[in-house]
Amino acid sequence: MTFTNDEIEYLNSQDLGRLATAQPNGTLQASPVGFTCNIALGTIDITGYNMAASQKFKNLATNPTVAFVVDDIVSREPWRVRCLEIRGTAEQVGTGSERGNEGPLIRIHPTRIISFGLAAGDLDVEPHQIKPHKRTLQ
User: Fold this and answer.
1) What residue segments make up the domains of the chain, in order of their start?
2) Coil, helix or strand for 52?
3) SS3 label, residue 10
4) CA separation (Å) from 39 to 4, 71, 104, 116?
5) Is 71:84 a contact under the CB 8 Å cutoff?
6) Dist. CA 133–CA 113, nearest whole Å
7) In this structure, what are the phi and psi dihedrals at residue 81, rounded to the nearest 5 degrees?
8) Residues 56-95: pLDDT tens digits?
9) Which residues sit opposite 133 in a β-bridge?
10) pTM here?
11) Contact residues for 122 (Cβ-Cβ < 8 A; gap 6+)
12) Cα–Cα nearest to 116, from 68, 87, 84, 70
């Protein structure tokens, strides 16, 4: 399984993430995006209005390397954040019909996952003592 149960629960509780792609000239672009966790494929599916015309979709034609982040603030006193960073490769998918989505989508295949503050026990640990969960996927 690509994602842990804690990561799946977190992803399913969030509506917005940030996708970083590389433009043909090498500059980076970060975009807020809607997404779904595709458990069956072990991927993140990025959807949106007029996706095929978007720069982020076009960027994948020259460089499929991406980073995707979902994070939030659990509390400010004490300062406590949760974060899931996914690095990997993305593909342009012509239709999202298998997920009930309309039109093209971006499908991220994770190669590296870093999560922080997502385990239930993390709420009982001092915020600066929480250890990130890092792993590289085959």
Assistant:
1) 5-136
2) helix
3) helix
4) 10, 19, 19, 20
5) yes
6) 8
7) -120, 160
8) 999 999 999 999 999 999 999 988 999 999 999 999 998 6
9) 115
10) 0.91
11) 130
12) 84
